[in-house]
Amino acid sequence: MEETIDIRAINEKIEKESAFIDLLTMEINKIIVGQKHMVERLLIGLLGKGHILLEGVPGLAKTLAINTLSKAVQGSFSRIQFTPDLLPADVVGTLIYNMKENDFSIKKGPIFANFVLADEINRAPAKVQSALLEAMQEKQVTIGDETFILDKPFLVMATQNPVEQEGTYPLPEAQVDRFMLKVVIDYPKMDEEQLIMRANLKGNFEKVNSVITVDQIIKAQEAVKDVYMDEKIEKYILDIIFATRYPEKYNLEDLKPLISFGASPRGSINLATAAKCYAFIKRRGYVIPEDVRAVVHDVLRHRIGITYEAEAENITSEEIINKIVNEIEVP
């Protein structure tokens, strides 16, 4: 027997639970001008317990955004500047010999925070990136023979600069897959940049207040799970994911030679989670196809491998996603 789902009750509950979103956005917007897309995606990552990879040229307020978010939520913040000589111990911490007690004590690294900014992640070699990975995936860190569970919420925001190739180590596919969203940030509009310029010249920045506690965020992360997703929407998400793997089954034969590999099951999980978070941010208790379409690029752009043939024709994963989304029937 199928249980009846009371959409109205869920809707009322979510509307109440998501009231803090406007408050939080207002606080962040005191400092961050424009960049609405980036701020929304940060909130999706936070609510969906995911991590975010931000790609954009230097100076687009990537560091500032996560710093502001951690101030608006009463959370701890740490920033790790990735460099070629960074060691895993510089990220997770290390054992230090204590001469007085003739014993080793543990010094925890900057990964022990609610919000961790991994700045220019592609500047560090794979060994360091993998140390960050255990923390991202398992939400725990091992130092010596002790394992520590990380504080909740735990959000890693990594940035990478798409312009420089020298001295960078491209992130392996398996690692990129750990990021719930890959957000590409563009320059601000002219009127926004005028406001940014004025604020910086005056130098009188508003103070960001803590408007919400870490416990409220944890509660909201649980509330997101209650957002209703109809089976038709689940089917829609699976169709999009399967079209990245078997385009020929979806009338998209021309994409076959362009895709080297499609999205993994992490792709479908994250697409469903991100759609629920997006509905929550829009203060709705149920997911509509527009929610899926709103987040599909950020969830899938780093999960579709493109072939040399696609590169030769200058076709990006963005365009492949566009073709898939336009072809698949909306429920």
Automatic annotation (TrEMBL):
The protein's GO terms of the molecular function aspect are:
ATP binding; ATP hydrolysis activity
Q: Which domain of life is it from?
A: Bacteria
- State the UniProt keywords alphabetically: ATP-binding, Nucleotide-binding
Keyword ATP-binding (UniProt) = yes
Residues forming the ATPase AAA-3 domain are 51-181
> Would you tell me the protein name for this molecule?
MoxR-like ATPase
Q: Which SUPFAM superfamilies match?
A: P-loop containing nucleoside triphosphate hydrolases (SSF52540)
Which InterPro entries does the record associate with it? Answer: ATPase_AAA-3, CbbQ/NirQ/NorQ/GpvN, ChlI/MoxR_AAA_lid, P-loop_NTPase
Quote any Pfam family the record assigns: AAA_lid_2
Give the family, as the similarity comment puts it: Belongs to the MoxR family.
The ChlI/MoxR AAA lid domain, residue ranges: 257-324
